[in-house]
Amino acid sequence: AYLQFRPSRLKTYLSMDTDGRVLRFDSLSKILCPGLRIGFVTGPQPLVERLNLHTQASSLHSCGVAQAITLALMEQWKQDSWAGWEQHVSDVCNFYLKQRDCFLESADRHLQGLAEYNVPEAGMFVWMKLLGVKDSENLILQ
Fold first, then answer.
1. pLDDT, tens digit, 9 for 90 and up, residues 78-136
2. Three-state secondary structure string covering 4-23
3. What does 72-134 look like in DSSP terms, one character per residue?
4. In a domain, 2, yes or no
5. 7 located within any domain
6. Number of domain units in the chain
């Protein structure tokens, strides 16, 4: 997960895998460009190859233009030892951190006593529990 708000990134399950059973799926949609709809998988080569064959047979991969743009950008960042990539990810994380903090300020001000939640350390979502509501389906449908 690239979208983390901590000074150092958490270890991934893939980095701790000792049996060759873990696949890691990443999306570049929020890091590079919303709507890009491109991502990648890393893991043990036999599993990744099987998944790749399935993807070729089922969806024919993502848009070729998006792949070409992403490849060109990654090749450019690779030339500078990925420093540009690291800076870009840091900039995006800082942007979303400000968005998160602004949202949480509003939630603290307007939802006090109505909902409880934890401050997320990564990602784009805040999971809330509505206090006094056992099943939120009816509330959502209203």
1. 999 999 999 999 999 999 999 999 999 999 999 999 999 999 999 889 999 999 998 88
2. ECCCCCCCCHHHHCCCCCCC
3. HHHHHHHHTTTHHHHHHHHHHHHHHHHHHHHHHHHHHHHSTTTEEEPPPSBSS---EEETT-S
4. no
5. no
6. 1
Residue 127 falls inside a structural domain: yes
CATH number of the domain enclosing 110: 3.90.1150
Cα 98 from Cα 111, distance rounded (Å): 19
The two tokens of residue 61 are 């991969």
pTM of the model: 0.80
5 domain residue, yes or no = no
Task: Give 40's DSSP letter.
Answer: E
- Residue 131 CA to residue 139 CA, distance in Å, equals 13
Domain of 53, in residue numbers:
13-141
Q: In 3D, which of 30, 49, 50, 28 has the Cα closest to residue 40?
A: 28
